[in-house]
Every structure is written in structure tokens, then in C-alpha cells.
Amino acid sequence: MRIGELAERAGVSTRTLRYYESRGLLPARRAVNGYRVYGDEDLRLVAQIRTLQDFGFGLDETRPFVECLRAGHPHGDSCPASLDGYRRKIAELDALIGQLQSVRDQVTAELVRAEAELPGGPAPRCEMRG
Amino acid sequence: MRIGELAERAGVSTRTLRYYESRGLLPARRAVNGYRVYGDEDLRLVAQIRTLQDFGFGLDETRPFVECLRAGHPHGDSCPASLDGYRRKIAELDALIGQLQSVRDQVTAELVRAEAELPGGPAPRCEMRG
DNA sequence: CATTGCCTTCGCGCGGACGTCAACGTTTAG
DNA sequence: CTAAACGTTGACGTCCGCGCGAAGGCAATG
What we know:
The structure is a homodimer. The first copy, chain A, is elongated and about 80 Å long. A two-stranded antiparallel sheet of chain A has the order 1-2. Chain A has a single domain (3-117), classed as Multidrug-efflux Transporter Regulator, Chain: A, Domain 2 (Orthogonal Bundle). In chain A, 60% of the residues lie in helices and 3% in strands. Chain A is mainly alpha-helical. Chain B binds a DNA duplex through helix 2.
């Protein structure tokens, strides 16, 4: 299989595949004429990269998974390094979520304060009846 | 007050102040020689921008607050448009947090599955006795 | 011969908030 | 008078990751 076919089957552009190769993922054997030659396993490899990308992994972060696959393991996450990759990403996400949550709370506090200070008088959230 | 003094007092660079002006925030009067001239209210204006920036507001999103201040209101968030700005940002943050949470859960599920499939056997989270 | 596919390398684009430099005018202190 | 310090505009560089586009040339196939 050459680059065009792999690109079509994987649903990415040939540019993307060459880019992956330039980044050290997805190395390709070469035919005598210099054409890149791929096997079916490379399809799974690209699929693994895309999946992780969808999770917000950077290209570099997909490396352990890719190397795990290339080492012959059944899944990209069949290796300890990949699991660590998961764990790091989860920790990263938790940290980010926490920061965003904190900002969210601060902005909400500002909103509440500003609403209370409005010259038109505070807009009550609950109906006051007497 | 000229640009250097305002920059120092506000804790930003002169480049930043000129940039704000170019973006339509922070318009400056000009002296006869063409120098930008600022008043004390501009200091509060810059402070308002920085505060919002810290909350993750883009420059454009600070516009209602800035115009509110320039309209003579006591705070940048003394205007309805500013409150809407707060609300939009909160909604934005909620959406983002939700997405990240979803991704986090998916990655966690992958991690759990991969751990269970490890050739070394699943690493139990709880001791099994008996 | 034409078409299609592939090869390489170089450089561009995006988006936002600036940094940095150039080349020049102004003010101020010695 | 001169030099430093400050001001002006304009244009380009940076960071970040993930690519895209195009030029110029070789390979395979009809």
C-alpha cells in the first residue's frame, strides 16, 4: 500500500501522513523507487493517533501508544508507558478543569456582586411576597 | 500623564497600551506634539482590562466593561451589557468544563479497560481475599 | 504523449497578544 | 549644544500545534 491508499483508508491527507513521518511517528519503508510503502498495521497506527488526537492528545503524546503498537502489542495501550500517558492526560485534564472551575466561580461571584450593586436595585432571584 | 507613566502605573508595556488603542479600547487624547495624554480614569480602565484578561476574557470581550467605565459608571460592570458579558463567559466556561469532563471520563474509561486487559493480568484496585 | 500518483523542500496560515526593531521627532538635563 | 530619555508610526517576529499549498521532477500506466 502506498501513501495515497493509506491516506484514503485512514481518512487523512497524504500531507498529514508525511507530517507524521517527519515527527518520527509512522516511519515508512521505501520501495526501490523511493515511494513510501505501508502495511495494514499502519492503518491501525494512524487510527490510534486520530483517536488520541480527538481526546486532545498532542502528537508527541501519542508516541508511547504508537510505539506500543509497532512493538507488536494488540493495542496501543497495551504497554505501561501508554497507561502512564492516559494517567498524565487525566491529571492534566483535572488540573485544567479545576482552574476553569475556579475562574468560573470567581466570575460568578463578580456577577452576583455587580447585580446587587445595580442602580436599578438588585434583581431578586426569588419573588418576595409580603 | 503620558504613555510611559501610565504604562508603569498600570504595570503593562507602552506597546500594550498602543495595542489597546489600536483595538479601539483606550482611546487617547493627543497633546499638540502628538503625544498621547491620559487621565487617572484610564488607569482604572487598564486595570479593568487586565482583570478580565486574567479571567480569560479576550480583548474584544472586555469592550462592554471598558465602555461602561468610559460612560462614567462607577464600575466596569455597572452596565447590563457587562453583566451579559459575565453570563456569556460563565456559559462558555460551563460548556468547556463539560466537554473536558466528558473527555476526562472517556480517557478514564480507556485507562480502566486497558488496565484490565494487561497481559500481566488486571491490577486489582481492591484486594481480593478468600 | 497525457494523466495520475508520488517524491522533495520551502514557506504560509491560523489566532491572539503582544515583543522588537527601525527611523524619526520632542523634551529635558547637564 | 548635545546626549539621553521619551515619544511617534509601521512592519515584522514570536509562540503553539497541525498541518496546507505549490513548485519542480520522477514513476507507472494507457
